[in-house]
Amino acid sequence: MLLCSSFYKAKAQISKIPVYKDIPYLQDYSIKYNSRNDQEILEGYMDRNGVIQILSNNGILRTHDGQFLYPGTLMKDKTYRPLTDKNINGITTYQDQFIYLDNKAVLSNAWAGKLFLPHELPKAKFLAAGIDFEFLISDGETLQFLSKDKATWKGKTDDVVLGILYDSTKEIFWILGKQSISSFEVSKNTLKTTQQEENLTSFTLFNKKLIIGTSNGYFEIDPNTGERIGEIKNKLPVNSITSIASIDDHLWFGSTKGAFKLRDDGKFDYYYGKRWLPGNMVKHISEGSDGSVLILTDAGLGQIIFENMSLFDKAQYYEKQVRNRHIRLGFNATLVDLEDGNIDSGRLSDSDNDGLWTSMYLAGEVFRYAVTKSEDALKNCREAMEAMERLFNINPVPGFPSRSFERSGYIQKLHNPERWQHTSDPEWDWKSTTSSDEAIGHIFAYGVMAELMDNDLKDRAITLIDTLMSHIVRNDMYMVDFDGKPTTWGKWNPEYVNARPKMVGDRKINSSNRQSNEANGRNNISTRGCR
Predict the structure, then answer these.
(1) CB proximity list for 218: less than 8 A, separation 6 or greater
(2) Which of 43, 94, 103, 486 could in theory staple to 87 by disulfide, Cβ–Cβ 3.0 to 4.6 A?
(3) Exposed e or buried b for every residue in 64-81, given b needs 16+ CB within 10 A?
């Protein structure tokens, strides 16, 4: 009666816990597109149709395939064959349409192809679009203004041009040099230059200020006066800035070691490594017409997607992923040996933690079933439970859970043959030396099933709790393997635990393991008794 009373008191306390409301939030994730080693990629943009084009030393590239966690590639764009004959050295967008710069003209396939403005700079590679089809281009030394209505203009700066951008509020073009900032005023055909001390690398307009990137941070300039605002800012994730863009009221920085966004609270969201980018040397950043951010690196493109989703939406994505590529003999298994992220090139492998990872998945499916009564979740529970039960009955040691099992002769077992043991069935082998974390995972999953399931799985879970705990208690708080010896980590005997100094992790962890398991066992025995 005491156990039943404690059980119902606990149930009453749980019922008073506030229910979480699954409110959608903005989730960022990356789709990566790898480039070939012989391709030097320079800058990239997206048009109003969602098409991405990349300027490279091999002409225009476009994205092929590519999904979250499944990289695509950058390949030669052959969609418009006459364009492949052009010597394209520059690209940008205007009114969300692609604009190209070749050795003869500024041109586009939009607007029925009517845009074609000849120029006199055969090595031109920089361009920026102004208003009413006005453009400023440069070959790195000379500047030329082009317009369908106004006279052309040519001039030079005393610096090496690194980039051009248009300021719509002042109706001027800004020109970035290695150590200078220049402005070209269209209405007066005048070029004004201000020298700078730092080695400049990139720039953008943000909140009516010029943001100038350097090899050691960035600084701000007042466009009206040309004077600096404050000191150089170099307390950044990485100070060597290679690209800057103003996107959706936020500053984005590319660097020699990834990209980062300045948040409203002054902190940064940092995008680094293969999770986000094909390479970490950022070449160019631009805004996609779909709200994504295109981060071009020396090894390809990382497209950062921002999508509103709830936790349920996110869980459903991973649920589909697990079912599609991670189920092996009922286990939640590891996919290994992928070729550059290609999931179709991988193979399902056994793991020392097949039981642990599967118990985590099993518990999650139990929670899902308890809330939604999903038949799919129930099927997943039954499939995983069969694998977990077989961990016990495939070996000859009473109450001992195997790490894993696999068909005999499986080549992966050659890597650690000492852990694999033959069964009485010549078709199957089982993996020994089960550790404490495996046992804790088992108890957690079975405890959840015993508490929340309303079918035969409830009794099956309680049986496995009793089976595992009986083995441990019968063996003086050890997990004893096929050789009659305790496994390396399956040890909760007080003499073993207390022999460690108080500050050693194993003493704390194993003590808490023992208390948790005993409490879990009592609770589930009470569940059976009160039924």
Answers:
(1) 211, 212, 232, 233, 234, 236, 241, 244, 253
(2) 103
(3) eebeeeebbbbbebeeee
SS3 assignment, position 387: helix
The token pair that represents 366 in the structure block: 């139990």
Cross-strand partners of 254: 243, 259
Residue 73: strand, helix, or coil? strand
Residue with tokens 């990356």: 30
- List pLDDT tens digits, range 333-347: 998 888 877 778 888
Amino acid, res. 380: N
Cα 262 → chain centroid: 19
C-alpha 406/C-alpha 397 separation (Å) is: 17
What DSSP string describes 167-215?
A: ETTTTEEEEEESSEEEEEETTTTEEEEEE-SS-EEEEEEETTEEEEEET
Q: How far apart are CA 285 and CA 165, in angstroms?
A: 14
The alpha carbon of residue 296 and the mean position of all alpha carbons in its chain are separated, in whole angstroms, by: 16
Structure confidence by residue, pLDDT tens digits, 457-502? 999 999 999 999 999 999 999 999 999 999 999 999 988 888 878 7
Tokens (6 digits) for 298: 């020396």
The pTM is what?
A: 0.81
Backbone torsion region of residue 480, taken as left when φ is above 0, otherwise alpha when ψ lies between -120 and 50, otherwise beta: beta
Q: What is the crossing angle of helices 375-393 and 436-452, to 10°?
A: 140
Supply the pLDDT for residue 32: 97
As a whole number of angstroms, the distance between CA 184 and CA 166 comes to 10
Alpha-carbon Rg for the chain, nearest whole angstrom, is 32
